[in-house]
Amino acid sequence: KTAEGIMSKDVIVTQNISKTYGKSPLQVFALRETNLRIKQGDYIAIIGPSGSGKSTLMNLLGCLDKPTSGNIFIDGNDVSTLNENELAKIRREKIGFIFQKYNLIPTLNAQENVELSMGFAGVDSQTRTKKAKQLLELVELSKRLTHKPSELSGGEQQRVAIARALANNPSIILADEPTGNVDTKSGENIMHILEDVNKKGETIIVVTHNMAIAQRAHRVLRIQAGEVREEHA
Question: 68 vs 9, 34, 57, 60, CA distance in Å?
Answer without folding.
Answer: 26, 12, 12, 10
